[in-house]
Amino acid sequence: MSGPHVTSATIGLALAGGGPEGSIYEIGAVRALDEALEGVDFNRLPTYVGVSAGAFIAACLANGLTTDQMCRAIIKQEPGEHPFVPETFLTPAISEIVGRSLSVPRLLLEGIRDYLSHPVDLSPFEPVTRLARALPVGIFKSDPIRQYLEKIFSKPGRTDDFRRLGSRLILVATDLDSGRAVRFGEPGYDHVPISRAVQASTALPGLYPPVEIDGRHYVDGVLLKTVHASVALDNGADLVFCINPIVPVDTVRSVELGLMRRGHLADRGLVTVMSQTFRTIIHSRMGVGLAAYENRYSDKDVLVFEPRRDDYSMFFSNVFSFAKRKAVCEHAYRSTRHKLWHNRNRLTPLLERHGIRLRLDVLEDADRDLWQHVTLPTRRRIADVTMRLDSALRMVEEMVAGG
Questions:
Q1: Separation CA 204–CA 331 (nearest Å)
Q2: Rounded to an integer, what distance in angstroms lies between the CA atom of residue 360 and that of residue 363?
Q3: Of the candidates 36, 39, 17, which has an alpha carbon nearest to the alpha carbon of residue 26?
Q4: Collapsed DSSP state (helix, strand, coil) of residue 236
Q5: CB 114, CB 171: distance < 8 Å
Q6: Strand pairing report for 37-38 and 216-220
């Protein structure tokens, strides 16, 4: 993997978070860009920036996993590869939950003792509030994410070492004890295995426990910024493609479409309310950041691809089933193609400035099927292997006959 192999010195890719669903959305979106843009090799870009789930996808692209390989991994296991399943992200942290629960009696006794010692200064609820320390810092394990990537990156031609990549890969996490962003892959942090850096960048507080690296604890990098496109721009990119799956939903048409009875997210409980709140905060912050880019990077271009606010396919999807995973990937693929086609008059000259041609012949095919085109390479590889085997057998036959 060592040595330069980039196709352009000006293009970067920045991928935001979004959990398993966001990862699948990003795969479909990048696949659409891969097909529609001539002059861009998404496995040979100079700079990749990933945060949270985007760190997962960016690390795979920088390591040579093609967009069609990742699409196939969503719906089936490709020989020699590992299937992409949401369960990798959502393995219950049983030991963490049990360990914390065992501390309940001790914490309760300590709280009662402190209250009895200082009844005037402390509230009678002090013993109860102390029990908050027994809550697990994460309900899911992040080790399966690291282990999954370790297996993938151990294959020939791939690496788990930032320093051996031919491209610059930067994965952003947050130092929990300082509240500052850390860019794994940059000098001083490039000794950390890529798989471990992805584990840290995806450690969203409440869902995953902090990840300890060199005595420091790290959590999800999305706490500070959404896509960190400025990292790619500061590293010399003149054009950055950004993919952000985190968009708040607008339920104005949800009743009409039969998805909700009243159109009130509060009816769906705490998790939905928290999801909408988180999405709103993150998306608002991204808008502020992109607005600042117009002045700070006035000579550069940033293209953002994300779902619409009435994109109910994203907000209400359950990606635990193969059918839903396939549907989310298809949806991202179609919506990205639609955005490219709808904005073709504006995008064509912009992309041409960077040596990229928008393939209108691909985009105008409204019936283009994602899965048909991502399965063709596998068939071709089988055909190539068969041809090489036939050729080898003929050579053996000729040698035997000649002998």
A1: 25
A2: 5
A3: 17
A4: coil
A5: no
A6: unpaired
